[in-house]
Design brief:
The complex is a heterotetramer of chains A (549), B (321), C (290) and D (542). Chain B has 321 residues and is mainly alpha-helical. Chain B contains 13 helices and no strands. The longest helix of chain B has 34 residues. Chain C has 290 residues and is mainly alpha-helical. Helices cover 74% and strands 0% of the residues of chain C. In chain C, helix 5 runs antiparallel to helix 6, helix 6 packs antiparallel against helix 8 and helix 7 packs across helix 8. Chain C is elongated, with a radius of gyration of 23 Å. At the C-D interface, helix 1, helix 9 and helix 10 of C face helix 14, helix 15 and helix 17 of D.
Chain lengths: 549, 321, 290, 542
């Protein structure tokens, strides 16, 4: 047992030093601070992380919020681990094999895993978890969806479990690596929806146990000393290095960034674009960024809307916007321009050949619009066709983003009126989407697997059924590619199919990919080993803190 | 037959209690009507816009929360809930609203009480200091008061944070364990209230200084500042006490913004979240709670009013010559 | 007429002395000029600012105040000066319209309560209490969700927020006027009741409330800004001051001018309106030392 | 500070000037005043409102007010030259050397603090007694000024005491720190006649025991009862001064003479053409068995008017006399139809008047009109005289074209002129305002005029003019008048018959001369007894 030193002292000394530093840096230039010697990783100490959003419900099996998956990752392990660069490797499941053409998955579990309540992880526990997720009473808003055509789980042996699906379901392994399908102690599953949602009964097998939680304020985590089943590439093995850590919920940007720069927190999530440069300039801080996998921020053009049935108008819209300039100025140089619906960070699916293949060309756009009959110009300079102005209706949930407003301004120069119809009434917006009363939808969707393309372009994934096919692509060729990709076992074959889908959507101007979503976390230099997972959320397991600073 | 003044006192108390119940009922009904008038289907508010939930599961949720019943039936159930204090479950947080409010009322009450205290003490001191003979302190103070009243509170909060917490680092942002994190939010909430209170109290105090009893006090050899603090200040309190309705409303309303800016937990923050998520049970719970608080504070202040002004005391009819 | 006589005649010393000091002071003049400018900006913004408030120019985003752009440019390269000037109309609309509607509703409400019998008075006042019991901002949030976001929603929300408090003040003042000597004399003369209300009760009730209305105007603009901060006020790209404050607040470190100038305009408008309002009331009170 | 030696004068003032404000708005309130006051003596300063007597009194305490500028050749207060006094010296004098007794204790004592504490304040401020003994000393002081059960009264608040008790408590607070001299500014004006005499007796006792008394008053009767010397002030200047006997009996200055002549009841009694009550015509006003009960705090009930009956013939002038709280004003409001009686009926011009709906009563409202006590509150502050009288004419059905001409005629009838037309009530003097009130009352050419204390708010000289106006209008227009007042002398001037009211009941009624000469009811006798000697002397001389 290492010497019992009160947990508060490092924090207080840190605070004092920070005060001195803050006072010094406040008035003098930043060069006064000598770079710390390259310290060795050590165990002990704690850190405070400022998150932008607080989950409404803490139960990963029911909540649809991605922040829930992030805050519960340290507590719940999963059968499979997905490395930051997308590879899947064993975790609680030592090995797995698929059979019956990808309809059945058989997992070989580790035998040394215990939950925080001392219970043992075995096949029955895995079955209990999956059955709980798909049970009607649980009213799961997302996890059940991830299990797709789930038929049931069979216990084959004490540590052997078989998961069956009604049709081949390739994305299951990637889904099984998320916190949504994380393994909770079967006893805790009976605690009832309100306790699980309140985050008071989160009992998993992860490297950290759930500590004290004050809603609206902060959530504490303490080290699980018995932890010995970390995945190979987790960057550390055995119990976590930190004694514990605290996540504080600071929703107001200015407050969160200020807390980081004044040293009151050791790391802060979601730095606004204009603050990144300032945080980088601060010698005591660093900025860790990572592209978010899945579907980038893209304009999906409704190929069935009266305006956009004409492919020439769609192409003109696609080529009118000078996206390079907009992305550079709105995100002040920290943004990455996107050329395909998929983010480069999506493993085995991104088609880099599309880059620079459709640069903005206002002259071409002009000619196409003339051919399509949009020759006239009204008082404000918008193009008209027999009196009617060229208006593109874009429904927006909540507030129109700064980027959307920039695109609106740029399109005006090309004579196209982008009408941003903002509303906080979720129902009205979803009704508008379901009934197709729109020309374009700008959205993005984080997902660690190329299969996200299916939910955007598979003809059956209509908006009413909860799918995302806003472009209303109903092309048998595209459907075929997507189904084959779902069934394909080898990653390369899947990548080839996905590449064809991406090229089709660009060539037919069904989409205008804009920028890659980026997660940027500000970190105090005394914190090391805090790396961003594939879905660009920080992993605390391998993190450690320099003593004394 | 009970002596007249006892039955009258009882009648007065029951009348006030009746009025209080009426106010709480009125506020709750307003909230119920308002939330039901809001266009859109509450189920999609519960589910949120990015969930993968099929149609029949939506029906499941609608039935679970009883949203499929006629509005009148829902209203009846809602009033019964209100009466029994069992406020149902929050849609978003899937927790009983009563327990949710119970553990969130602590920080808000702490913030509200400290802010009220600071506002009243600040207003009284500034009033006494600026109602002296020379005119310029009064001019400067009223300019500052106007400035504070017309600055939106979120701006004030962020300014204070940027200077005292981030630049100078004297005060932490929001660490409920650390009392110092209470200083900035209290100042942000208390300043606008103190500004208005000072204007009203100073008007009252200057008026009192011109009353004949101030002249008598001076004729007894009292120094001007003693006349102000011992006699006039109490008279200045009377008009301030009439502002209770506005005072409590501003306190609760202000808490919403301050808790958001300073990332403090509390009722304000939940209210804002609940209204934008159309979380009916939580909003109705908060409304009932604030109505009760409003009525309680009103009763307390009415008592205070009688303590300060003996002329209103019941048992003080005119004694015979 | 000597101070002594005025005192003897019952006029409170304060009112008489204040009337005597009624000549226009420099502060009031400055406030009046500023108010004039603001009204001009609201009615004909293009006179003062030639650029368009909504044209984006991302390449020249976040430029400091200088020759080309007096108030600098915002994160989308829009001219802050043009936006502030064109924004006057929206902020004033929220402030003036909300106060007007709020005060109008309050006068009807307060007068009805003061002039009707005990039962009517009790019901109306309890209704006012019920609305007052809802925290101002919560009421505003709900109204905005019903009436919809943007300038209209905010205006109604702020009006509904101010009306109950104001109604109580109107009622109190109306009760004082109703019991006054001149109303009783009018009854003795045989003047019909509606005429008494129109000629005596209404004007004497509204007079003293003039200053309170100006202070409410200040508070209304400020509440409108708070609503924008919570994302419920005017929607982008509308150049309303509150919305600009919210957007600009994110850039405080590096582009202070985006938030500073709308904030400055907001505060100085409120100051100007309150100073002019106070002066008007002091003058009215001096003349009619009721 | 040596205690005041008996020989040196308490006040020695010469060339005293007090000015308020600056530039065109400057008011020169006191001009070159000179006087002196010795211990055990009383100097009275007499003058009408606006004469500057209050400003003079306050300047002796350095309390003339922030905008006042006080200059003097000599200003010796309690043996020290006050011209060089700084705030500290003034504070040492106030309360300890010079005490102040204001007009109305209800507002001159802090209503939010117990009376005992108010009296103790000067004791503690000047450390006359250690804090422990202050309580006992307060009780002794209350006893000294004749307040029964001092312990209970000390705990009470000022609004809980009756008029007389409050004024005695105020005097107790003024003499607490044993000042050598008392300045009494209209000490008994706010009191009823009966209570007034007892408080004056108390002030007399204090004078006998050696305290100097500077009495400020507009009421010559009060001056006569207390003063040794008297100084008459007009427009800031002392126009006449000397021993009280000489000045009141043989006044030299014309202003003093006019003041004395204006005292009601003092002049020769003018004959009134009394309309024979029994001339058989139906009574214009018939009040029978009228009762009015007010529900007080905590369910207590107070009977303000108890079974009152009387009749009023057309053209008759009936007086209604009683002290404050006797119910006379409530009765007047019932006659005017502004308050509904709980019992009994009021008939006007032979038809029922009380118990009607306001709409039915409205057409006959022109028959009875009111002349109020305080005209300032009876006029809409924002209206001009023309509009005030115009409204009355309009309601009486006078066409718009004639209205202006009729208004001017009415103004002339009450002694005003065209130049008052556009003025606002505040810009008129007390007397002028009362004349406008009469003009408004005459507009609907009523048959009955109800005057509720029409002159009690006015100065003596102005009172006389308004009473003359009312009397001449009665005779000219054959108006019936119900004249309500607490002042018997005033009633005697104007009325032929009088009713005396006490606690809501009429205790005596009859022709004025008979009631004045041989009052039957003991209460009427007490009222008459309290009328200051000057008025009574005139009656005896009859």
């Amino acid at each position: 047992m290492h010497p019992p030193h009160p947990r508060r002292t490092p924090r207080r000394t840190a605070l004092l030093s920070v005060l001195l530093l803050a006072a010094v840096s406040a008035c003098s230039s930043d060069d006064g601070v000598a770079p710390a010697a390259q310290a060795k990783p050590r165990s002990g100490g704690s850190l405070t992380y400022a998150a932008q959003q607080e989950p409404d419900c803490w139960d990963p099996h029911t909540s649809a919020q991605d922040v829930t998956a992030f805050v519960q990752r340290p507590v719940f392990d999963s059968l499979v681990y997905q490395t930051p660069d997308g590879e899947l490797e064993p975790w609680l499941a030592k090995s797995w094999k698929t059979s019956e053409g990808g309809r059945t998955y058989t997992f070989e579990l580790r035998d040394d895993v215990t939950f925080h309540d001392g219970k043992h992880l075995d096949a029955a526990a895995v079955k209990a978890n999956f059955d709980h997720i798909t049970a009607k009473a649980t009213q799961s808003q997302y996890a059940a969806g991830l299990l797709g055509p789930y038929k049931g789980t069979a216990v084959k042996g004490k540590y052997e479990v078989e998961v069956r699906f009604s049709r081949p379901y390739a994305p299951f392994l990637q889904a099984a690596s998320t916190t949504y399908l994380g393994m909770a102690s079967p006893a805790s599953l009976k605690a009832g929806a309100d306790k699980l949602c309140a985050g008071t009964d989160s009992v998993g097998s992860g490297p950290f146990k759930a500590g004290a939680y004050t809603r609206g304020q902060k959530r504490g985590y303490t080290r699980n000393a018995a932890y010995a089943w970390a995945p190979k590439d987790a960057g550390h093995s055995g119990p976590a290095r930190l004694d514990g850590f605290t996540i504080r919920f600071l929703t107001e940007d200015a407050t969160r960034v200020g807390a980081l720069t004044s040293g009151q927190v050791d790391a802060a999530a979601a730095l606004p674009a204009n603050q990144i440069a300032a945080v980088r300039r601060n010698t005591r801080l660093d900025v860790v960024t990572k592209d978010v996998p899945g579907a980038v921020d893209t304009f999906y053009l409704n190929t069935k809307s009266p305006l956009f049935t004409d492919e020439r108008v769609r192409k003109a819209f696609q080529r009118s916007v000078d996206l390079d300039a907009l992305v550079k100025s709105v995100f002040q140089g920290t943004g990455t321009r996107a050329w395909s619906t998929l983010s480069p960070a999506t493993p085995h699916s991104y088609d880099s050949a599309l880059e620079r293949s459709w640069p903005s060309d206002r002259a071409l756009a002009g000619r196409l619009l003339d051919q399509a009959g949009w020759k006239g110009r009204d008082a404000e300079g918008y193009r008209t066709k027999n009196g009617k102005r060229l208006t593109v209706v874009a429904p927006v949930y909540g507030k129109a983003s700064v980027f959307s407003q920039a695109v609106q301004g740029d399109l005006k120069k090309a004579g196209i009126h982008l009408k941003l119809a903002a509303s906080t009434d979720a129902t009205a917006v979803s009704a508008q989407l379901d009934e197709g009363r729109y020309d374009v939808v700008e959205t993005s969707w984080a997902r660690g697997d190329g299969d996200i393309l299916s939910s955007f372009f598979l003809s059956t994934e209509s908006s009413e059924g909860g799918g995302h096919n806003f472009a209303k692509v109903t092309d048998p060729q595209v459907d075929a590619w997507l189904k084959k990709a779902q069934a394909a076992t080898s990653p390369d074959k899947r990548a080839a199919y996905y590449a064809q889908v991406q090229k089709w959507t660009i060539d037919h101007a069904a989409v205008v990919p804009a920028y890659v979503q980026k997660a940027s976390v500000g970190v105090n230099k005394k914190v090391h080993g805090l790396r961003l997972s594939l879905s660009a959320w920080p992993e605390f397991y391998a993190a450690w803190v320099e003593a004394g600073r | 037959m009970t002596p007249p003044h006892i039955s009258a006192a009882v009648r007065a108390v029951t009348a006030r209690a009746g009025a209080a119940v009426l106010v709480v009922w009125g506020a709750a009904t307003c909230a119920f009507l308002a939330l039901h008038l809001i266009p859109g289907d509450p189920v999609s508010a519960i589910v949120g816009s990015n969930a993968l939930v099929g149609a029949e599961q939506r029906e499941e949720i609608r039935h679970h929360y009883g949203l499929d019943r006629s509005p009148l039936v829902q209203y009846g159930a809602y009033l019964k809930q209100l009466a029994t204090g069992e406020l149902g479950d929050s849609y978003q947080l899937q927790q009983p609203v009563s327990s949710l409010l119970a553990d969130q009322i602590g920080p808000t009450a702490q913030l509200a009480l400290w802010s009220s205290l600071v506002a009243v003490v600040l207003a009284a001191t500034v009033t006494v200091l600026t109602s002296g003979r020379s005119r310029w302190p009064r001019r400067v103070s009223s300019a500052v008061e106007l400035l504070v009243v017309s600055t939106p509170s979120f701006w004030l909060g962020i300014m204070l944070l940027t200077v005292f917490s981030f630049r100078l680092g004297w005060l932490p942002v929001s660490d409920s364990g650390d009392a110092r994190s209470l200083v900035l939010p209290v100042i942000t909430l208390a300043l606008p209230i103190a500004a208005v209170l000072t204007q009203v109290m100073r008007e009252g105090l200057l008026g009192a200084l011109e009353q004949p009893f101030s002249l008598t006090a001076r004729s007894r050899g009292l120094a001007e500042h003693t006349v102000r603090s011992r006699h006039a200040l109490r008279h200045a309190a009377l008009p301030a006490l009439t502002l209770t309705g506005w005072f409590t409303g501003t306190l609760l309303g202000g808490a919403v913004v301050v808790e958001n800016v300073f990332a403090r937990s509390g009722i304000g923050r939940i209210t804002l979240q609940a209204v934008s998520d159309r979380d009916l049970p939580v909003v109705q719970g908060v409304v009932a709670l604030s109505a009760v608080v409003f009525v309680l504070v009103g009763a307390v202040v009415e008592l205070l009013y009688v303590v300060v002004d003996p002329r209103l005391r019941k048992g003080t009819g005119v004694a015979a010559a | 007429m000597s101070v002594e006589q005025a005192v003897r005649a019952g006029a409170p010393i304060a009112a008489v002395r204040r009337a005597r000091r009624g000549r226009v002071r420099p502060g009031v003049l400055a406030a009046a000029v500023l108010l004039g400018l603001i009204l001009l900006a609201a009615l004909a913004p293009s006179l003062l600012a030639h650029g368009s408030p909504t044209d984006t120019d991302p390449v020249h985003a976040l430029q400091a105040p200088g020759g080309a752009h007096w108030f600098g440019t915002d994160q989308l390269g829009r001219d802050v000066f043009a936006r502030v000037v064109h924004g006057t109309r929206y902020s004033l609309a929220i402030g003036a319209a909300a106060t007007g509607a709020g005060v109008g509703l309050a006068v009807v409400w307060g007068l009805a309560a003061a002039l009707s019998g005990r039962f009517g008075d009790a019901v109306l006042m309890r209704a006012a209490d019920a609305l007052l019991a809802l925290p101002g901002l919560l009421l505003a949030l709900m109204v905005v969700l019903i009436a919809g976001k943007g300038v209209l929603g905010t205006t109604i929300a702020v009006a509904v927020g101010t009306a109950p408090g104001f109604a109580r003040v109107v009622r109190a003042q109306a009760l004082v006027v109703r019991r006054s000597g001149y109303v009783e004399s009018a009854v003795a003369l045989g003047v019909p009741r509606p005429l008494i209300v129109l000629r005596h009760v209404l004007p004497n009730t509204l007079g003293p409330l003039l200053v309170l209305a100006t202070v409410t105007l200040g508070a209304s603009i400020s509440t409108g800004a708070a609503l924008s901060y919570l994302g419920l006020g005017a929607q982008p790209p509308t150049p309303e001051w509150g919305a600009m404050l919210t957007e600009g607040q994110g850039f405080l470190e590096q582009a202070w001018w985006i938030a500073l100038f709308p904030g400055l305009l907001l505060v100085s408008t409120v100051l100007a309106v309150t100073v002019v309002g106070r002066h008007a009331q002091a003058r009215a009170e001096g003349r009619a030392a009721s | 500070m040596t205690t005041a030696s008996t020989t040196k004068p308490l006040f020695e003032v010469a060339g005293l000037n007090v000015r308020f404000g600056t530039g065109p708005g400057e008011v020169h309130a006191v001009r070159d005043a000179a006087f002196s006051l010795d211990a055990g003596r009383c100097l009275a300063i007499v003058g009408e409102s606006g004469s500057g007597k209050s400003a003079l009194a306050r300047s002796l305490l350095g309390l003339a007010g922030p905008t006042a500028r006080v200059t003097a050749d000599r200003l010796r207060v309690a043996g020290h030259e006050a011209r060089e006094f700084g705030p500290r010296e003034w504070r040492a004098v106030r309360g300890r050397r010079v005490g102040l007794v204001a007009q109305d204790a209800l507002v001159a004592l802090d209503p939010l603090r117990p009376v005992g504490k108010e009296i103790a304040e000067p004791l503690l401020t000047h450390r006359v007694v250690p804090r422990r003994e202050a309580g006992a000393r307060v009780l002794a002081l209350l006893e000294r000024v004749g307040v029964p059960e001092p312990a209970e009264r000390a705990r009470a608040y000022v609004h809980q005491l009756s008029g007389g008790l409050r004024q005695r408590a105020l005097i107790a607070s003024a003499i607490a720190a044993e000042p050598g001299v008392l300045i009494a500014d209209e000490p008994t004006t706010a009191l009823d006649a009966s209570v007034q005499s007892r408080v004056l007796a108390l002030l007399g006792e204090l004078k006998e025991s050696g305290t100097g008394l500077l009495l400020i008053s507009h009421d010559l009767a009060v001056v006569e009862a207390l003063a040794d010397e008297v100084a008459v002030m007009k427009d800031g200047r002392i126009v006449e001064s000397g021993p009280v006997g000489r000045v009141l009996e043989a006044p030299e200055h014309p202003y003093t003479k006019s003041l004395l002549a204006a005292i009601p009841g003092s002049g020769p009694r003018r004959e009134r053409t009394v309309v024979a009550p029994g001339d058989g015509s139906a009574p214009l006003l018939d009040v029978s068995g009228v009762t009015k009960v007010f529900k007080g705090a905590r369910g207590s009930r107070r009977t303000a008017v108890d079974e009152v009956s009387f009749a009023l013939r057309p053209g008759e002038a009936l007086g209604l006399v009683g002290e404050s709280g006797s119910g006379k004003s409530t009765l007047a409001r019932m006659v005017l139809g502004l308050a509904a009686p709980d019992g009994g009926t009021v008939e006007l011009g032979g038809a029922p008047w009380s118990g009607l709906r306001e709409r039915d009563r409205r057409e006959r409202r022109h028959t009875v009109q009111l002349v109020p006590q305080d005209p300032l509150s009876a006029f809409d502050p924002r209206w001009s005289v023309a509009r005030i009288v115009g409204e009355a004419l309009a309601t009486a059905g006078v066409a718009r074209a004639e209205r202006r001409e009729r208004t001017v005629r009415l103004l002339k009838q009450v002694g005003l002129s065209v130049e008052h037309l556009e003025r606002r009530p505040l810009a008129l003097s007390g007397g002028q305002r009362q004349r406008v009130a009469v003009a408004r009352a005459l507009a609907p050419s009523p048959r009955l005029l109800v005057c509720d204390e029409p002159v009690s708010a006015l100065d003596v000289s102005v009172q006389a003019q308004v009473l003359d106006l009312l009397r001449s209008l009665q005779e000219e227009l054959g108006l019936a008048t119900l004249f309500i007042s607490h002042d018997l002398a005033v009633v005697r001037e104007v009325c032929a018959r009088v009713l005396v009211m006490k606690d809501g009941r009429i205790v005596e009624s009859g022709p004025v001369e008979r009631v004045f000469a041989e009052p039957a009811h003991p209460y009427t006798r007490a009222l008459l007894e309290a009328v200051p000697r000057r008025a009574r002397a005139a009656v005896e001389r009859l």
